[in-house]
Amino acid sequence: MDITPYPKLFLANDLNEALRALRELADSAIPLAGATWVMRAPLRCETADRTLIDLSRIEALRTINIDQQEAVIGALATHEQIANALNGYNDLAALAQAAGHSANPAIRRMATIGGNICTAEFAAADLVPALLALDARLEIEGLDGSRTQTMAAFLEARATRAHTDLVTRLIIPRTQRTSTHARLTLRKAGDYPVANLSVSIALGAGGKISAATVAVGAVEAVAKRWTGFEEAIIGHAPSPEKMQMIAKTCLEEFDGRDAMDAPGWYRLRVLTGLVANAFSTLQETTLGRAM
Amino acid sequence: MQNTADAAVMNFPRRDARDKLLGRTKYTIDVGGSEVIHAVLLRADVASAQVLRLDVEAARSMPGVRAIATWEDAPGAHGIGIADHPIFARDVIRYHGEPIAAIAAETLEQAHAAAQAITLELAPLPAVLTMAQALEKDAPLVHPDWKDYDILFEGAARGGNVAWEATVARGDTDAAFDRTDVTIVDGVYRVGRQSHVPFEPRAVVAAFEDGRHHIQTSTQVPWTVRHVTARVLNIPESQVRVTVPAVGGGFGLKFDCSLEPYAAILAKKSGRVVSLVNSRREEQMTCLCRENAEIRIRSAVTADGEIVGREATVLMDCGAYGGEQVFLTTMTAHTLGGNYRLGSVRLSSRAIYTNTPPNGAFRACNGVYNTFALERHTDEICDAIGMDRMEFRRHNVVGDQDIGATGQVFEGDVLRPMIDRMQALCAKHPNGRENGQRLDDGRIYGRAMTVGTWFIFVGPSAATVNLNVDGSATLVTSGVEIGSGSMMHALPQIVAAGLGIAPEQVIVKTADTDAAGRDLGVGGGRTTVSIGAASAAACDEVRDKLLAVASEMLQTAPEQLVLADGRVEIRGRPGSGTTIQKVVAEAETRTGPISGSGAFTGPGIEAMPGCAAGHFIDAIDIPVFAVHDCELAIDPDTGQVEILAYRVVQDVGRALNHRAIHGQIQGGVVQGMGYALHEEITINDQGCFDQTGFEAYRLPLAQDVVPIEFDLFEGAPSCGPLGTKGAGEVPILNVGATIGCAIANATGKQVSQLPLTPPRVLALLDGRDEPLALNHISAIWSDNTLRR
Amino acid sequence: MTITLTVNREERIFSGDPRTPLVDVLRDHLRMTGTKAVCREGFCGACMVHVDGAPMASCLLPVGSLDGAAVTTIEGVATMEHLNAVQQAFEDHDVVQCGMCFPGMVMTMSRLFQTNTSPDRDEIKAAMTGNICRCTGYERIIDALMSIRTNEVTS
What is the CATH number of the domain that holds C60? Predict the structure, then answer.
């Protein structure tokens, strides 16, 4: 007989309620954000009878605020909300595009940014490389207070992280850079990507790249920065052809993931094409206007 | 005055659309409510094992459990050609997913919990997971007792892991290959499985009523369900009644009995109404797929393009049980052996046992991959002898009085004029592009045209037409509406035309084996033809009876009477006659209500004696031809293929409903695009499919498709009613072939496999893969037969 | 746990496991079977309903999250006599085949035409990305939708 005071789905009214429930129930509970991953547990043959701590009533987690200094995105903001709210900001375009093209329209309407980055088993998340490329920090709250962390540090510890604290906000510094996101799906759309790429660059004198942050997802089990490529493109004009050529020399940083949708070699092989796509998008849209 | 055939042609809209659009239609999966209990199957999670112990006692006392069934409840084995298939594993497990027990409980959750409580002890056995492994010398046998099985159809060679072998031998191929003036072209081809993914999975609701089983099921073949259920339960067929609600897609998957006997057993044991529905995962992982196949074709061709000899071997993976593949070995003679005039030919078509989930029938089964292999091979011949692809085809396609692989004589020139029609269709969109040309965006352009031969699967159908006092007619057949619309479009149109009433006045009853006569089922493009012909024959009897009475009422000879607009008129004098209602009322006072019955089975075209061995049919009654053309672009950075344009010229005999045929062509070609480019099933070392759902098994989406341009070729000979041929099955036939040939033309590479997923196309472009080798198929044809 | 929902403008109460997907509550508990559970992973769109006006995949929505929400299903968008514009176009163009995907198609496309009365072909296809049809090959469905667009433009 079930003696827990919590129903199998607990609608937390505020963050404290949620955190208390997570601590009390420990391993027998899991936070529920957009539900698109958790509700598919039966398909993954996961049979654990876990209590869902539903965060959707916590209004504070849904807000998106953008000012001159930073963009602050609540962890419960959906892909659709993010794509709409960030539309038109050149520096944040990578995240807007990643959120606006992931999966399919219905999933974008439900899936949240918090869920996207917290799901350790999901290698093909679109928002993770975008947040890496935009140098986002996470705000994490527990019963003992809040802290912030870089995306890289968060990802490093993600697989073993306990769910007793919660990612509450993503904080993205505003910059003069331009950014974009490119993804390759096996069909035209509607798939998770076999490889994705987010690029954020600043242009210096003569239109040459003066700073760059590039992150790659889906190629390996966890998205990561492409540091060799970031360094190699400094000082070059951002032409798609040139960028693709440089990318070809920087692939040894990756160990392509063999999975059902594509072999590892394929993910690496298409990555340079994604680089060309990303830089031609930059050229056509934001850079074109800026230059 | 219109003749009957003209009167039948119209864009009659389907009558089931509104309820489907409102969510009101009840499919089998929608049957429920508090009186219905729920069943699940306990399935094997290994590919090959010996069963040491099966104990269901603990499960019996689990909450809510109402009945449990195992092999003891189903003594019989079923199959096509050979009775090799028990519905429950007994001593041996032969595939991952094989049912071991069935449990019915008040709720689905209780049934699952009880399944978990069943004790099963297994000892692993070696598994053969590929046809190459199965054909190795000393390979473990999937059915060590194959010699003891009941033979249901005589004449085939069988042995070891070769479940069934059908061969064709016409003429002297040895002499042809020995000629000094021929070029010998040798090609190998391989295709994977394709999953049907009907949106309604296989589902059944069974009850035991008045001492008989009543099975409501999502099937294409109510009479097969009746027969197989009775056979495995070891009861008379008359104790099984099958009715069929609206079916949410079939595509051939539901052309076999599958879940029905389990539900029937549980219904009788529990005394309750039992629902058994495959979860999507089960449906994917035990899908009776279009089989994976491996093919070798060798041809001896003269310099001027005459095919003097052809030898081919087709290996079809039937999985752990023979099933449909046993029958489909027959088809190779007419698909791979089709299209072209052959001086001499030898074909070996073999169903091979493996420890994998059984396969089944899928829209244009066998034809789809054999057409791919044949058309790729044809292009390889053209390259080898330096002949234009179109010229070669125009020169070699079968025409009037040409003979097919088994020696049947074809009537009428059909394929050649269809090629002309395709060229005319393409000429409307000249673009000056060449194969291999780089488009402005850097992609590589490719194009191909292929031909294909398919046939209508005729066989027995029965129909009864009751003419009602209100002037409407009720058509009673064993047809079911699986979505293709034959029951909604063609049948009421044929009956309406035959009786001179409006199609809205024709009530079409869906299958109930207690009400209608035997029928082979809805599939093989046969509904319009076989059920249509039986319906037309029933209308003839009704019309004769009606006119006999009207003749006396109107004092006019029956030959001078015509039926039109719900009236019997004296020929040439509109308004002179009377209404059908009045004639029916008069008939009731004289002889009783008017009804007619009709039957059909096919004309029985003959093959050349002695050509075919192990075949279920030696010749095809109604050939159907198709010509396809595809333009595509390949991204050299990703291997992604975009279809730019797709065109179809299809032999339809006579088109009764243009809009309905358009729907079938668009839908069928898109399924073919999925097969050619996206849909892949891989079998892992556990013997199970990797693709368990919609994320991994990639169906074409709206953005992946283009509108199909088409031209319907009418007038080819057909024994179908009003000259019709079925139009729903054939559109998928040469899509894999056309896309495969276009990719080969674009890249200049050897395309030997489907599906052509982006990784496979990119590997091809990069020269990353070794050319396909099928070392288990010998270049010496007779080595690939048991009769050697 | 007891959850109160408004389904097709009528208050309904569900008592049971709050993690139950909405689609199962509709089909099994309320016996509203128009909404179809086909893939249960948010890819096919056959279970699409409107939650507070937005199209959602009901297979991924735990009912407990929806306490107080307004749900519209395929049974609630029209009457037997008067189809909505999307349904009417599908019927007029005779595009339905097996019909299993159409409840979801109608829910997704009805919402699209509420937000964009004149979408072009590419916009319709993009909006259809999460609705799979195995029978029709899509294009005739899209032809039907293009007709209501044209009608609205000319009226």
Answer: 3.10.20.30
Q: Which of B485, B695, B702 sits opposite C125 (nearest CB)?
A: B702
C61 and C97 inside one domain: no
Measure in Å the smallest separation between the Cα of A150 and chain B Cα atoms: 31
Give the pLDDT confidence score for residue A164 in this predicted structure: 86
Q: Which residues of chain B have pLDDT under 70?
A: 1-2, 788
Domain that holds residue C101: 85-154
Give the DSSP H or E segment for B445.
Answer: strand B444-456
Residues in chain C within 8 Å Cβ distance of A190: 43, 129-130
Tens-digit pLDDT profile for residues B489-501:
999 999 999 999 9
Report whether B73 contacts B265 (CB < 8 A).
yes
Q: B411 by DSSP, 3-state: which?
A: coil
Give the model's pLDDT for residue C149.
86
Closest in C42, C48, C64 to A54, CB measured: C64
Residues C98 and C143 in one domain: yes
| Among C residues 31-50, those touching chain B with beta carbons less than 8 Å apart | 31-36, 38-41, 43-44, 46
Same domain membership, residue C29 and residue C71 = yes
Mutation target among A11, A25, A39 for the C interface, most CBs of C within 10 A = A39
A8 contacts C19? CB cut-off 8 A: yes
Domains and CATH numbers, chain A: 9-54 (3.30.43), 59-173 (3.30.465.10), 178-290 (3.30.390.50)
CA-nearest of B665, B610, B699, B687 to B356 is B687
- pLDDT tens string B232-242: 999 999 999 99
Give the alpha-carbon dihedral of B110, B114, B115, B121, to 10 degrees: 170
- Asked if residue C64 and residue C20 are part of one domain, the reply reads yes
Residue B20 three-state SS: helix
- Chain B residue closest to C31 (CA)? B33
What average pLDDT does range C122-149 have in this prediction? Answer: 97
Each residue's pLDDT tens digit, B536-549: 999 999 999 999 99
Length of chain B: 788
Question: Are C15 and C61 in the same domain?
Answer: yes
Chain A residues lying within 8 Å of C127, measured CB to CB: 105
Residue A199 CB-half CA count within 13 A: 31
ipTM confidence score? 0.97
pLDDT at A15: 96
Last residue of a domain, which of C45, C76, C107? C76
Give which of B671, B664, B636 is closest to B650, Cα–Cα.
Answer: B664
Tell me the residue type at B244. Answer: V
Compute the nearest-CA separation of B409 from chain A (Å).
Answer: 44
CA of C30 vs chain B CAs: smallest distance (Å): 10
- Whether C101 and C147 map to the same domain: the answer is yes
Domains in chain B, please, with CATH? 4-24+459-600 (3.30.365.10), 34-125+202-277 (3.90.1170.50), 293-457+607-781 (3.30.365.10)
- The CATH number for C131's domain is 1.10.150.120
Contact list in B for residue A123 (CB cut-off 8 A) is none
Residue with token string 């010996």: B50
